[in-house]
Amino acid sequence: MNAVPDALEAAAAPAGTAGAARAAAAFAALGDAVAALDAGRRRVAWASPGWLRLLPALGEGTPLVDLEHALPGLAAALRAQPAATPAAAAAAQRLVLGDAQEWQAELSAPVEGGLRLLRLADRREQGRALQRQLDAREQLLFTSRVLSVGEMATTLAHEINQPIGACANLLRGLRSRLARRASGRLQEAEAQALDRAIDQAMFAARIVARIREFTHSHQPRRARLDLNRLLRASAALLDWDLQRSNARLELALPDGEAPVCGDEVMLQQVVVNLMRNALDALRTDPPPQPRLALRLLRHHGELELQVSDNGCGLDDEAQARLFVPFASTKPSGMGIGLSICRSFIELHQGRLWFSRNPERGTTFHVGLPRAAQADAPSR
Ligand code: ADP
Description:
- This protein has helices at about 5-10, 20-30, 50-55, 65-70, 75-80, 85-90, 125-180, 190-215, 225-235, 240-245, 265-285, 315-320, 335-345, and strands spanning about 35-40, 45, 95, 105, 115-120, 225, 250, 260, 290-300, 300-310, 350-355, 360-370.
- By secondary structure, the chain is of the alpha+beta class.
- The chain has a five-stranded antiparallel sheet, with helices on both faces. It has a five-stranded mixed sheet with strand order 7-9-10-12-11. A two-stranded antiparallel ribbon has the order 6-8.
């Protein structure tokens, strides 16, 4: 069925509209949203199926005044004087119509019979299509990051699991042998040092176990936990490194619970990684008073954790390569810490970013969704 040319020709029959009809038929075949406006009779002479999908109530026979009302900007364009040169007068006018500028339009010069063709495109749909494209791209990048980190992690976990286990066993054996030799009385400082070393080895073993579990399932655990407590525990794990760097630890944590829902080991690994990077930055270019600050801010629906230092800071080149895997400015750095941190945080629907401190050094920020009241408590 081809109702297009008939309707159009009938609308402008006295002047003969073969050209307009052919053009309109072509638009209809392409699926475009096109209407032929009859300026003389002040009504819509014809509307393509694509037009009727966008504006079902404004089809053939609609008075132009109603159309102008629905498409602010159209009335002025129809009233505009023809352009001065013949070429410009024959060209279609490009318009943006609508209260929220939601329509992109092209208005032809009068064709045979005084009809003018108006073609519409929904700019919101273009915006949505662009957004869908960006989302798909981000999802792809996210997936490839998770997968490459997953592969790397499986290899690393496999390689370092053995030495970590051996190290923890040797330390435990050493502790009990020393205790026996000193007839049960090990010096307190030595006992503490050994306990600390065992704690560190066990922490590493837990990380490896979680990495293996995670690369197997690709899902972090989800349990309700208190970020305040997690930050204090992370700081305790690094107390020896802080002392060695002569760095003062500043803790600015809010009172009460700071609940998030997530994987305790993964999140602790992120905090420890960021703190280690901060300590490295303090050692690279030590300020007169080295400082590492851990802050926790409550926002609406989100908790923001900050790890801030007054160390060497980031120059433009380091900043550009910050999240590039295997890019490191440290002689023995692997350059994967931040990539892993970002993947772990994204798996928690969070975000990781950084800022340069105005005076000196860098701040890394981690935003995590606050846990709802109903989330299950941590085991
Ligand atoms: P690595 O520590 O193995 O180099 P990361 O991914 O942890 O890998 O960090 C990549 C690079 O980012 C580091 O080599 C360093 O140049 C830079 N960086 C990270 N954190 C900081 C910081 N707090 N201050 C200055 N530079 C930093």
